[in-house]
């Protein structure tokens, strides 16, 4: 039986990479998916999905827009069973190399963006006394990495945001977990892939000696969203081919 039948799943960062892989995986398991992003994915990426995903424009840094979009989802579909917050961008730089605007932008998109989406989905989940939120941290949010301070800090913050929400809303049967991917081949990491030597070195740091694919992350997100994970909450789960366990 389809694992997300009659469930409504809202996914941010849904037009590309891991978010898009989640759209496809969740829809293939029967979910009514609502994809939120600045833009839309190519039509062929959604071909054949039933129910057809609905895409709405959202800049996750805009709180008022987020509130309105969540209200629209609830008005149209009556519930939100899963929320995946995958919107994000990459950055580079140590503290002395990071200008304040870039620092602010990283915190806005990753931390505020995740917080706003959760803030306006949670009341519906609490009211229906069920829900699963899947946030996106990173191996860099767990253990850092050189020359990437704004991203590391934003992703570290996601860990605490995830745990805080799991503590605060568990009483209402809302589960909150986060995924910490290793190197995943997506448009975000095209820059890494273009430097073949560095890509090979980074990939070799993963126990499985390779980069991951977005579908491999979406599979774990699907598990956390499904009833199979009914007693899993407050976890940051590394999907990193063993990178962080080394
Ligand atoms: P991606 O670039 O392929 O997709 C990110 C999506 O987020 C894009 O569609 C983009 O339009 C959207 N987005 C960016 N800013 C937005 C905004 N302000 N409002 C709405 N949408 C916005 O990236 P990805 O690799 O699929 O990354 C997904 C998540 O996984 C991110 O949070 C990323 O930090 C995290 N992550 C990725 C990797 C990796 O190696 N790819 C590793 C660890 C964590």
TrEMBL record:
KW Membrane (keyword) present: no
Pfam families, alphabetized: adh_short_C2 (PF13561)
Record-linked PROSITE patterns: ADH_SHORT (PS00061), PROKAR_LIPOPROTEIN (PS51257)
CDD domains tied to this protein: SDR_c
Protein family according to the UniProt entry: Belongs to the short-chain dehydrogenases/reductases (SDR) family.
This protein's UniProt keywords: Oxidoreductase
Full protein name: SDR family oxidoreductase
Domain of life from the UniProt record: Bacteria
